[in-house]
C-alpha cells in the first residue's frame, strides 16, 4: 500500500520528474513506497535550514573522520570528502533475501570457475566458455596453473555491482574480484547517517553493518596456512599516493592489523617477513590491495616498486596466503561476465537467481557488427578497466567519440563489450533545498571464508551530475547510506 | 613497529628540531647584527653558518635580508627552515596512521604557512616576528604530540629524533663558540661581550633558566657548564642525552630481541662523559675537542640506531 506524499513533501520534491526509470522512493503515479513513508514524513517535517544544517554536520563529520580523497602534489595537501547524500536508500528484507541468495550463488560459481580454469579447465574443454576468451584475457595468470589455493578459495573479498531496472528487478552489472573498494564509505555513511537522522533508526529496523571489519578479519584468519594458529595478518597497500589509501589505513586500523607496503616485506627461503624495529616478523596472510601486476617484480612486472620480490614463490610454496588470489581478474573480465549465467549452470546446475545484463561480446562477428551499427544506443566498455574509464555512453556521445570507439573496437575487439543503455533506478537526493532524482547502483560487499557472508546493503553509489549515468567516485560520483530493513 | 614507520617518525622529529634550532639561531644572530660591535655582519653570518653546520655553499653577499631569506625560504637548500618543514611533513605524510589528526593538522599548517604569501609579508615587516611564528608552530606540534599521541613506540622514536638532534646541534653551536674563543686571544683577554654570551644562551632558550640557576652574572664558564652538564634544563646536552637514553631503553624494553650492545655502550659512554665530569676538568683539557667528541658520538649513535632498528641485514636478523 502506498501513501500519497504530504504538501510539505511535494514542496521538497519540487519539479521532481517521474518517468520510465524505477524510482526508489515513489511509484509512477507519485505515491510513496510503503517502506519510505516514515523517511519521507521526517524529511518533510524538517525546514530547509535544518536540512542544510544536518548536511553540513554530515560533511564536517566526514572531514574529521578522515574519509577523504587527498590530492597529493608536492605543493598541496587538499582533502576532499567523497560526496555524501543524506537521504538513505532503502531495501526491503524480501528484496535483500533474493540479492543475498543470488550473489552467494554467483560467487560460489565464479570461485569454481577459477579453480577449474587454472587446473583441469573442464568448462573450456566442454566448450561452455570459449577457450580463446580465457587465454587472451590480460588478467589470466599462467603462473597460477596447477596450484591449489588455500581452502580452495580464489576470491574472498568481492564487490558486485547491481542495478535495478524499471521492473524493479535487480540485475548484476559486473563483478569486482580483484581489489574492490568503497567499504570504508559504506561504514562511514552509516556512522554519519546515525548522527544526522537518529530518530529514523528508532522507527526502522535497520540491519547493522558495523561488524564488517570483524567479519573481514575472521575471513582473513580462516585462510591462513595450516599450522599457523595465531596468524600474522597484514594489509598490503601501494602507499599514500594511492587514491584508496585512506580505506586501506581505515580497514587496517579497524581490524587491528599492520598496514604494510611492499618495501616493508622481504622473503627468505620462501617465507615472507616484515621488517620491524623488533627484527623480522613472519607474515602469514596478506590482504592484498595491490594489483597482480605490481605485486612481485620477480614474477610479474619487473619495474614495480610496490611489491615484494619472491612473494609469489612464497605463496606457491604455501607459506603465505595472499587474498584475493592472483589471477582472479580473469573472472571479472567483462567479456567473461557475459558467460556467468552459463558458468552458474555448469558448476551448480541451477538457473541464475540474479540475471546478467544483456552483453555483446565483440570477438563474435555477428555481435560486433550489430554493435558497430548501433553505437549511439549502446554502452561500450573496455573489458579490464574500472573506475568508469574507457567507456562510451552511446546516447550521450558525439559522432567523433563514436567513430573513435568504432576504430578501437575494430583494432582490438577482445578488449571491448557492449551493453544496452539501461535506464537504471533513481533515488531522490538532496540538491540544494530540493529533492532531485539521480541514478544509483548498489555494491554489496561479499566475504567468502568458511562460507559466503554478505553485509546487509552495501554502498549505494550516486551519479551526482544531473543526467549522468556514471557513479564512480573518480568521475563525479557520490554515495548514500543503504538500509536493509528487517 | 615497522622499521620504515620508525624511520619516518624519527626523521620527522629531527627535521622539526632542526627547523626550530635554525629559526632561533637566525633570530639571535639578526638581533646581534643590529648592534655595532666588534663582529661585522659578515663575521656574524659566517659564524651562524658554522653553528648550523650548513654545508657550503651559502655565500654572504652583503645583504642581510637576502641571506636570511635564503636560510628561511630556499626550498632546495637542505639547511633552510622551509626545506626542514617540508621534509618533516613528507615524513609525517607517510605515517598518517601513527600520528594524531591534531599532529598532522599542525604540521600541515606550518608547512602551508612557510609557503604562503602572508609569510613573505610578515618576513618583510619583521623577521623576528616571523621567526617567532615558526617557532610557535613547532612548539604547538610538540605540545599536541605529547598530549594526543599514545606514549608508545612511535612517540619514543619521535623523542629519540628530537633529543639526538638537539644534543648534536647544541654541541655544534658550543664547539664553534669555544673554538672561536680559543683562537682569538684578544677576545679571551677582554672576555666575551655580554651580548655574545647572552646570545648564546638565547640560542638555547636558556637565558632566564640560567639566571634562575646562577644569578644574572654571566660568565663563559658557567654558560658552558649550564648548557653541557645541567641535567634538568631541556636544552642542555646532558638532559638531551639522558632523554635519548630513556627513549632507547623504552624502545628496547618493548622489544623481544636482544638489545644492541654497541648502542647501549655508545649512549652509556656519552652519558657518563657528561654526568661524571666537571667544567673545570673540561677546561683543563680542550673544551673544543670535548665538544667535538660529543658530536662524533652523536653521529655514531645515529648510525647504530639505524643499523639495529631499521637497516639490519636479513641474515643477521634471521640468524638470531
Q: What does this protein look like?
A:
- The complex is a heterodimer of chains A (486) and B (320).
- Chain A is of the alpha+beta class.
- Chain A has a domain at 360-420: Dna Ligase, domain 1.
- Helices cover 32% and strands 22% of the residues of chain A.
- Chain A contains 16 helices and 22 strands.
- A 4-stranded antiparallel sheet of chain A has the order 5-4-19-20.
- In chain A, helix 1 (7-13) crosses helix 2 (37-45), helix 3 (48-65) crosses helix 7 and helix 4 crosses helix 14 (340-348).
- The longest helix of chain A is centred in the N-terminal third of the chain and has 25 residues, at 93-117.
- The model of chain A is unreliable at 71-76 (pLDDT under 50).
- Chain B has 320 residues and is mainly α.
- Chain B has 2 domains: 1-149, no CATH class; 150-320, no CATH class.
- In chain B, 77% of the residues lie in helices and 0% in strands.
- Chain B contains 17 helices and no strands.
- Chain B has helices spanning 3-34, 41-51, 64-73, 81-94, 101-114, 117-125, 127-148, 153-183, 185-190, 194-203, 207-214, 220-229, 237-253, 261-275, 279-284, 287-310, 314-319.
Order of helices and strands of chain B: HHHHHHHHHHHHHHHHH
CATH topology (level 3) name of the domain at 360-420 in chain A: Dna Ligase, domain 1
Quote the average pLDDT of chain B: 90
Calculate the terminal CA-CA distance of chain A, rounded to whole Å. 18 Å
Q: Helix proportion of residues of chain B, in percent? A: over 70%
**Total strand count of chain B, please?**
0
Overall shape of chain B: it is globular
Q: Strand order, main sheet of chain A: write it out.
A: 5-4-19-20
Strand runs of chain A, count: 22
- In total, how many domains does the architecture of chain B comprise? 2
What does the radius of gyration of chain A come to?
A: 23 Å
